[in-house]
Design a protein that fits this description.
The chain is built from four helices and 13 strands. By secondary structure, the protein is of the alpha+beta class. 17% of the residues are buried.
Length: 357
């Protein structure tokens, strides 16, 4: 009886040991399978074009081109604005006064220029008339001299032959000498008349100066008008007001940001792909994007830019024979965001799809 009892105990022990061995073998098998699959998943993930980046969007600041005091703000943070839409307005009283002053200066310059132009015309007419008169006197004197010389030339031989008297010779000589003096006086008068052309030059210079004043006044008008044209601040892009830096009533310098506008409807993410994988990325390639805020939602994206220049090294060389630096290339992926659920700054997990994925 004792023998049967011990045999039963041994049998139970053996069965228990066998059971334990089976459990251990099964556990080892399950562990190996799990570890193998895990390794396969990790290896597969490493080979995938899967990277992490940050949600971004095109953002610009809107600023006045001219200084002034803000009279009105037409939008607030969160408002959607269209390209060219009104954002803010500067006070315009001083600028309008400057424009009025510039316009008055232009009118005064016009009056001076018109008067100077009339002066040029009057001086020209006067000088030309004097020159014409002097030229006619020179022509008459030349004819008189010619006639007096001819008479003198006839009387001299007649006098030598006793045909003409001494009185006739003296009269011919005196007339000839008088004709010469008359011509000299006429030529001097012509020279004086021609020198009067300087009056015209002076008048023309005055007219030119007046025209210069007109141009200067035009410049002042254009400047004042340009200032007035820029007192209205408009949106440089479509988007949403994400920041307001100033309030109505504040003074602002040219170029000081008043609003920040962000195109939240068209977000993007920039990621870095190692040079080992960049050859598998091309423009237009689709991508899937996931964010922690919406774990069950997949956002669709598209590769729109690949930097041709490598960035920092993602792996440094260990030695010169077997390893080398592995550089990365920046890739931009556009993500439509019509519902505005994606926010800038969110961490995004990006998977660039290949083949039939």
């Amino acid at each position: 009886m004792n023998m049967d009892y011990f045999q039963k105990i041994n049998i139970k022990k053996t069965g228990f040991l066998v059971f334990l061995l089976v459990i251990a073998a099964a556990s080892l098998f399950i562990f190996n399978q799990y570890f193998y699959k895990n390794q396969q998943v990790i290896a597969s993930e490493r080979e995938e074009l899967a990277v992490t980046g940050t949600i971004e969007a095109k953002s610009v600041t809107a600023a006045f081109k001219v200084p002034g005091k803000i009279q009105e703000l037409h939008v607030n943070e969160g408002d959607r604005v269209e390209l060219g839409g009104s954002l803010a307005l500067l006070e315009s009283k001083e600028l309008q006064a400057k424009l009025t002053q510039a316009q008055a200066a232009r009118e005064a310059a016009d009056a001076v220029a018109n008067q100077a132009q009339k002066g040029v015309g009057a001086a020209t007419e006067e000088v030309e008339a004097a020159i014409q008169y002097a030229e006619s006197k020179v022509a008459q004197a030349e004819v008189g001299l010619k006639n007096a010389k001819q008479l003198y030339d006839r009387v001299v031989p007649l006098h030598e032959n006793g045909v003409a008297s001494d009185k006739e010779l003296d009269e011919a000589a005196n007339n000839y000498e008088l004709a010469q003096k008359t011509l000299e006086e006429a030529e001097a008068g012509l020279a004086q008349a021609e020198s009067a052309r300087k009056k015209v030059e002076v008048a023309e210079a005055a007219h030119g100066a007046a025209l210069g004043q007109c141009k200067q006044a035009d410049g002042a008008i254009s400047e004042a008008q340009a200032y007035l044209d820029n007192i209205l601040l408009t949106a440089p892009i479509c988007g949403y007001i994400t920041q307001k830096f100033l309030e109505a009533g504040e003074m602002v310098n040219a170029g000081t940001p008043v609003f920040e506008i962000t195109d939240l409807a068209n977000t993007h993410v920039k990621v870095f792909i190692s040079e080992k994988k960049i050859g598998r990325v091309h423009l237009g390639q689709e991508a899937e994007i996931r964010v922690d805020a919406f774990p069950d939602k997949v956002f669709k994206g598209k590769v729109v830019w690949i930097n041709n220049a490598g960035e920092f090294a993602v792996k440094k060389a260990v030695d010169d024979q077997h390893e080398r630096d592995i550089r990365s290339f920046q890739v931009k992926i556009e993500i439509p965001n019509p519902d505005l659920v994606l926010k800038t700054g969110m961490t995004a997990r990006v998977k660039i799809l290949e083949g039939g994925e």
